[in-house]
Amino acid sequence: MATKTPTKIRNTVQSKYSLIPLLQSPSQTSTNLTGLPRVAKDIAADIYNTIQKWNDSHIQGAAIVKKIINLKYDRGRKYTEDLEKFIEELEEIVHRLSLQANSLTFLSKQISSLSRLHHQHRLFITLSATELSNSVDAVAKAYQLELKVKKYVLENIGHSRTETEAMFHGACWVHQQYITNKINVLLEMILTETGHRQIY
To answer: What is the mean pLDDT of residues 127-133?
Structure first.
């Protein structure tokens, strides 16, 4: 019976498989990045930081939405002043989210411009500049769609007539239906591709 295990002959290993050289990302070299890879890596860092700011604002907004819902539960209490205060706070949060979503759109346009300048096959390890641009664009569009939901909640939660309606608006805020697992995977792929995440 033939064995498929490689056999050692005079300090060399013979195998029917050959080694495949792996490309090393420019972001993994010990020297400082320059040129378009440096720009792409900086844009990826800006995307990550902007999304972290979005997440902070989203959590703060969720706490305010919860206060509004609790106010709607307390039917016997006069809540006009409290409600107005909470809506103003939520409006400030939505304004910050708008700035962050617009920042992501701006970064998407920057990486799109970069993809028109870079004509080599790969910018880093696996993605071309165009593929990287498409990934960033998908992330930016998802956050713009989610911003529309946040604006909808801001405009309607104060006018909720029932507890159920207020809870629906709260669920819309918290769930973030457009920021799916696919979007999170795209973000991780961008960070890994540009060297912000280690490949194990």
So the answer is: 87
